[in-house]
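TEACHING EXERCISE
Course module: macromolecular assemblies
Task: Read the component lines below, then compare them to the predicted structure of the full complex.
Student: A.B.
Group: 4
Components provided:
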Amino acid sequence: MKFSDFVASDAIRSELASTDKEGVIRELIGSLVEAGKLPKDEQENIVQAVLKREELGSTGIGRGIAVPHTKHPSVESPVGTVGVSHTGVDFASLDTEPVQLFFMLISPPDKLNEHLQALENISKQLQDETFCRFLKQAKTSADVKQVLEEADNNQFA
Amino acid sequence: MSNDMFSTKVTITNPQGLHMRPAYLLAETASKFDSNIELVKDDIRVDGKSVLGILTLGAAQGTDVIVEATGGDAADAVAKLEALLQSGFPSAQETSESEKG
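Instructor-supplied answer key:
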């Protein structure tokens, strides 16, 4: 599964305004709602589901990366977006480092393999240092989109 | 110094496969050991102490995953990881969605 299969490019945020964990989650879900990828009337419900998932253990997996996610019946295939924080946000990560790169992912509860494939793609690319560095340096959502496209064309990992 | 290698093959049983939380739990457990630990699926070989690495396996339900450990505490590491994999990662999170197959 490629980034273009699930990342809503209109919802990419290259300069997150939020400075705390809940704020980032709200901002990214909000951007997906604005982009028309998630229903407005489910917005709060989805935010709560993502926050609840974080309570089970932070999705901050280290090296400045977090993959907040949940399953929700309001989507028919995985829907995601990317957020960049240039200052970094405390996300209670495994290595306690602040997070700059966020991959938000909402998957349908009945398509477990699609969720797994989206995660597989995200993590494959995130293992590449250059990919991460380029994303962290992105100044506009067009920059982020371009890095994702290059990843889809196997220019990194 | 011992360089004993131990390995075991486990079939993934939980419906969601090795998604993020299981990957996290596996990496966390593997990191407690000094041995070098790798997970292998088909021709993909990853660091068993890396969440990202484990996620790149994309191991769905029914997939066979080999756990390999080399080092002084390798036998114990393989036993612990095997038990964890076989537990199916029961979760309070999605018990309402516990569909089969």
